[in-house]
């Protein structure tokens, strides 16, 4: 099965199936898709996604982004507006006092996202939909603009919850750089001149190792463990976590 889905009108669309967990299980195919902008999907691509089993689309972009580049609608999936931004600011405050001085530009933003109450509510909605996706070969697609930052954090949370090792999670995040050989060509599609300039800057910043590993540091520092984070920040308890693994992992 292909991990990178080069489909017309899609940006950075990738399959999360096939990754092996620390317990030796594999994530099922046709269940989890991560992506960037999907406002330009062609009829051929829509046919492919319908055959692929797409059922839910979770849009992490701001309301302004969603209005400027609305997701293509189709009768076989439902789009859920689930903006991560604007943050309430508490996550940024917490990230700024973490005991480290090595975090990159994106790393500080990612830490702010996982610690921010509003963003946590957005990812909690994602997990609610993941738990509702119980039918075989039905997929959840979650996306932002570039499919790197807000989506990258979402992918990390999902893969970590499914017990994929940190090294594999980092490699999946860094795959984005292969998808953007020339970021300047994507500027018109990803960035709104009248929109949030911080989001525009994020979209044009390459993925790097320190940025994604800083998320692990923030969660461990403030929550002690990832399971605590899922429970306390996203409302995913141990029983729901096991249900999630039953849905998305080959048994």
TrEMBL record:
Organism's domain of life? Bacteria
Q: Which GO terms describe its molecular function?
A: phosphoprotein phosphatase activity
Q: State the organism named in the record.
A: Companilactobacillus versmoldensis DSM 14857 = KCTC 3814
Listed Gene3D superfamilies: Protein tyrosine phosphatase superfamily (3.90.190.10)
Q: Which family does it belong to?
A: Belongs to the protein-tyrosine phosphatase family.
Name this protein carries in UniProt: Protein tyrosine phosphatase
Give any Pfam family that matches: Y_phosphatase3
Q: Which PROSITE patterns match?
A: TYR_PHOSPHATASE_1
User: PANTHER family, per this entry?
Assistant: TYROSINE SPECIFIC PROTEIN PHOSPHATASES DOMAIN-CONTAINING PROTEIN, TYROSINE-PROTEIN PHOSPHATASE
SUPFAM superfamilies annotated for this entry? Answer: (Phosphotyrosine protein) phosphatases II
